[in-house]
Specification:
Layout: H1 3-12, E1 17-22, H2 26-36, E2 42-47, H3 53-60, E3 64-68, H4 76-85, E4 95-100, H5 107-113, E5 118-123, H6 127-137, E6 149-153, H7 157-167, E7 172-176, H8 179-189, E8 193-197, H9 203-215, E9 220-225, E10 239-242, H10 247-258
Parallel strand pairs: 1-2, 1-3, 3-4, 4-5, 6-7, 6-8, 8-9, 9-10
Length: 260
């Protein structure tokens, strides 16, 4: 990561609105932040340590708050009290978005806060609706681009480091550590690329992985194998890579998918 490049380019951005994402789920907050970073108008902050909530609100004074209600360890009523007492920016009406599956938990909170500011409830996984509401609130004609996602299931840290090195600039790389987490990430983020270490699979997992592949469009399922003959055991992968992974093989895979 080139910090010099990052700092130079950050100074050129003309931020107009500050957005604070509140979530204790690293991948979820990183995904939303990456979506919002396509716009030069937004300066995006992420808060995962909720004991710092009051101080962060005081320092950032966000124009918009996105609360991941499925991934916060603070009670809805407590967070509502903090929001109600915070100092809001004076240059634009603030926006508060409760995002996630557990909407029933915050109905009373929304009823209380909506008399103080604009409050929205967005269902889980509705990223386009989330981003479009933010864009409309700030009167921006901005088309948010789809985030390219790579999901990997591999237990070798060196191989995962090579994946990060080759793909991280153009893809959001999500590392999973068990097959259930992999399935959840595939269903949630609809990744363009999925890398799976075949040593981790059993017959039940193979069947579910094949079903997911058939139900998700634009999906490249890559099997990571120990030797070439292992290909005969798996007929549902699009391509195979031999372990330990080689950077050139990963670069060739990226180039192939980028030009599909």
């Amino acid at each position: 990561f080139n910090w010099k490049y990052f700092k130079i380019n950050r100074k050129k951005r003309n931020f107009l609105y500050r957005i604070l994402i509140i979530s204790e789920n690293y991948n979820e907050s990183r995904y939303i932040k990456r979506c919002l970073n396509y716009s030069n108008e937004f300066q995006v902050f992420v808060l995962s340590e909720l004991y710092r909530l009051k101080n962060t609100l005081e320092k950032v004074k966000p124009h918009a708050l996105i609360v991941d209600i499925d991934n916060i360890s603070i009670k809805p009523l407590d967070i509502a009290k903090i929001f109600a007492m915070r100092e809001k920016p004076v240059d634009y009406e603030s926006l508060l978005i409760f995002y996630g599956k557990a909407q029933h938990k915050i109905n009373d909170v929304v009823s209380y806060l909506k008399y103080k500011e604009k409050v929205l409830k967005i269902p889980i996984n509705q990223y386009n609706e989330l981003l479009q509401n933010i864009s409309n609130h700030f009167n921006l004609n901005y088309n948010f681009e789809k985030i390219r996602v790579l999901v990997s299931l591999i237990n070798n840290e060196k191989d995962f480091g090579k994946i990060i090195k080759v793909f991280d600039n153009d893809y959001m790389v999500i590392g999973t550590y068990n097959i259930d987490e992999t399935f959840k990430s595939i269903e949630k983020y609809n990744p363009e690329i999925v890398l799976v270490d075949t040593e981790i699979l059993n017959k039940d997992n193979q069947k579910k992985l094949e079903e997911l592949k058939n139900n998700i469009a634009n999906h490249n399922l890559i099997g990571l194998i120990n030797k070439d003959i292992d290909k005969n055991q798996f007929n549902f992968f699009d391509k195979f890579l031999i372990k330990p992974l080689q950077e050139n093989d990963l670069k060739n895979l990226k180039s192939f998918i980028d030009h599909e």
